[in-house]
Design goal:
By secondary structure, the protein is an alpha+beta fold. It folds into four domains: 227 residues, Thrombin, subunit H; 96 residues, Pdz3 Domain (Roll), CATH 2.30.42; 96 residues, Pdz3 Domain, CATH 2.30.42; 167 residues, Class I glutamine amidotransferase (GATase) domain (Rossmann fold, 3-Layer(aba) Sandwich), CATH 3.40.50. The protein has 16 helices and 38 strands. Strands 23, 24, 25, 26, 27, 28 and 29 form a seven-stranded antiparallel beta sheet that branches. A seven-stranded mixed beta sheet has the order 32-31-30-33-34-38-37, sandwiched between helices. A six-stranded antiparallel barrel has the order 9-10-11-14-13-12. A hairpin with a 5-residue loop joins β3 and β4. α11 packs across α16. It starts with 7 loop residues before the first helix and ends with a helix.
Length: 631
């Protein structure tokens, strides 16, 4: 892997400067420029045009290109990225691919990565798909003619031409070398192809520079090709390495100081890591891998070496031949290790991170799993354990406790936090007891800090029953933890008191109540029906319908419904439902057909009835705040 931590500050500073100049093309707001270049033969333009597609979804859009007649499509990861910052590996929900002949197809994102910025999509088209021809990006050369094709918003196509002006850009904070071209990369062209003069794909266009130089940056197609199997079979790009060591190219001055003219310097080895146990030491000079000579004189050569190591399969045994010792007195040694699958990446350079964030919005606190790379990037002591603080909202409970992003929370209420699971269980338990002050111990750099969170508990006198169907309930954990953080007394009711599975290795939730024994009128101030596909089973359940009807008639009780459960008030009303409601779009027709007043908002509240589409976490939190506001 690349050098750290010796050069980390330099890299991060350079990245910060570059970010002001570089943006993913899909997010730029400049007016598209259309050229009709005379140096691109019309037959080449006709050849490639059917292979380029437009990609659109609820957040943004971009471009892609067809890989195969059975519907595989390549694009950028940032083109298909979803809107939930807590789930950075989740794509946008409703993606449409528009072909050159204007046919539209729903697309599934099979997998994507943000660095390298590559996504693999699939559509089911009966016929007529024309794949691109793949070029040889490994042998691309400076000055080589190239042209870009894209689908900017509002325009069907743009064709722009230029040359490859650099094929070894390494200063953009990317994991691999990228190409630079002066072919104009217009707004909305992210994910589109860069072709050579024969109409063969050289790479995927991903970034464009602001300013007068109008440079575009392209991921070489051989990089994307190496990722396809992982994206197709695993939903993400899987990196392999012997964790955790970093490398440095041996440039002229360093080579003179080390008295070597070839090889790759091992610049860092994490203590007690697999690399350490393999026998690697800082200062070793790697000269062979599996008997083949390796060397890196430039940063571009180093990135190419690291990439070739990264794409080897996990589990493969690998042999390093190294030079060890002082100049003039070195010995050649051989070490053998086994490549491992790298854990999910935290945010770093152009990589936005892959780790799910566990956020208590009511407390203004978000944490994620602490990884080995966190230790190196943020210079956290090697023996530190706990969870990494990703988010602290200004003015929140966490902010008042002086918790800061980058802290490691290692103890809550005098209980050690060994994992993200332990963090969630301990904090939820303290919130359920409505403790006025929850002690928190944190590691910040080399220092230990002690503080306490004092939740506001604005719903401390409110009794809530969550009515949950058996099956998949993706929003249950969020609903429960945010209600606990607000101070509500939370009980869970299911038909038959069936246990509910949760994510992230948390133990199953055992319901407090069986719906058949539920007297919601006396046991709850607020009745919340969760959503999801499993909630459709409630539509034909007479006990559920009777419960909803009774709640509608109870003027002192709040009835709140999410997603698929929002149809329940309509089904329970013998006459036209008077309060306004909102529903998921695909259910709106059923509601309108029965005379309901459908508004289409994310959250609707009227006369103690609160409904929400439940489309994402922000909407659910807006819904919970509306529930909390009801008296």
């Amino acid at each position: 892997m690349r050098r750290l931590p010796l050069f980390l500050l330099t890299i991060l500073f350079a990245f910060g400067c570059l970010q002001a100049q570089l943006l993913p093309v899909a997010e730029e707001a400049s007016e598209p420029v259309i050229k009709n270049p005379v140096d691109i033969p019309e037959e080449i333009m006709r050849k490639v045009d059917p292979s380029v597609v437009s990609i659109q979804h609820e957040r943004a859009g971009g471009t892609g290109f067809i890989l195969s007649t059975d519907g595989y499509i390549l694009s950028n990861g940032h083109v298909v990225l979803g809107s939930d910052p807590e789930q950075p590996t989740q794509p946008a929900k409703r993606i449409t691919v528009i072909l050159s002949d204007e046919r539209k197809f729903s697309a599934k994102v099979l997998g994507f990565s943000m660095d390298p910025d590559v996504a693999l999509l699939k559509i089911d088209a009966p016929e007529g798909l024309i794949p691109v021809e793949i070029g040889d990006s490994r042998n691309a050369s400076v000055g080589q003619r190239s042209f870009a094709v894209g689908t900017p918003v509002g325009l069907k196509r743009t064709f722009t031409s230029g040359i490859l002006s650099n094929i070894t850009r390494t200063d953009l904070g990317t994991e691999t070398v990228v190409f630079q071209t002066d072919a104009a990369i217009n707004s909305g062209n992210s994910g589109g192809p860069l072709f050579d003069s024969q109409g063969r794909v050289l790479g995927i266009n991903t970034y464009a520079s602001r300013g007068q130089n109008n440079l575009g940056f392209t991921i070489p197609i051989h990089v994307a090709q190496a990722m396809i199997d992982d994206l197709k079979n695993h939903g993400r790009f899987i990196r392999s390495l012997i964790p955790l060591y970093f490398t440095n190219e041996i440039y002229d001055e360093l080579g003179q100081a080390l008295q070597v003219d070839r090889g790759i310097l091992i610049s860092y080895v994490m203590e007690n890591s697999s690399a350490d146990k393999m026998g690697l030491k800082m200062g070793d000079i790697l000269i062979k891998v599996n008997g083949e000579e390796v060397s890196a004189h430039t940063k571009a050569e180093l990135l190419d070496f690291e990439w070739e190591m990264t794409i080897r399969p996990a589990g493969e045994e690998i042999t390093f031949t190294l030079l060890r010792g002082e100049p003039g007195d070195r010995e050649e040694i051989t070490l053998t290790g086994t490549l491992e699958e790298l854990e999910l990446m935290p945010a770093f350079n152009r990589h936005v991170g892959e780790l799910p964030e566990h956020r208590y919005a009511t407390l203004g606190l978000g944490v994620e799993k602490l990884t080995d790379l966190h230790h190196v990037i943020h210079q956290i002591p090697a023996d530190a354990r706990g969870v990494f603080v990703k988010t602290v909202i200004e003015g929140s409970v966490a902010s008042r406790a002086e918790i800061q992003p980058g802290d490691v929370i290692d103890t809550i209420a005098d209980q050690p936090v060994e994992s993200i699971v332990a963090f969630r269980e301990i904090l939820d338990s303290e919130l359920a007891k409505r403790e006025k002050a929850i002690p928190v111990e944190m590691i910040r750099g080399q220092l230990n800090n002690i503080s306490a969170m004092a939740p506001d508990y604005l719903m401390h006198n409110r009794k809530v029953i969550l009515v949950v169907p058996p099956g998949d309930n993706p929003d249950l954990d969020l609903l429960r933890r945010e209600l606990l953080a607000k101070g509500a007394t939370v009980q869970i009711a299911t038909p038959g008191k069936v246990s509910l599975s949760r994510d992230d290795a948390l133990p199953d939730l055992v319901p407090d109540l069986d719906l058949s024994d539920l007297n919601a009128e006396t046991e709850a101030d607020i009745l919340i029906f969760t959503g999801g596909e499993a909630a459709k089973a409630f539509w034909k359940n007479p006990d559920i319908i009777a419960l909803v009807k009774a709640s509608l008639e109870n003027e002192g009780q709040v009835l709140a419904c999410i997603g698929e459960s929002t149809l329940l008030p309509v089904l329970a009303s013998e006459e036209k439902l008077k309060p306004k409601i909102t529903l998921p779009r695909d259910l709106s027709g059923q509601a309108v057909m029965r005379g309901a007043s459908y508004t289409g908002k994310d959250v609707e509240s009227e006369k103690m009835l609160i409904t929400t589409t439940g489309t994402d976490r922000d909407v659910l939190r807006e819904f919970l705040q509306e529930v909390a506001n009801q008296r």
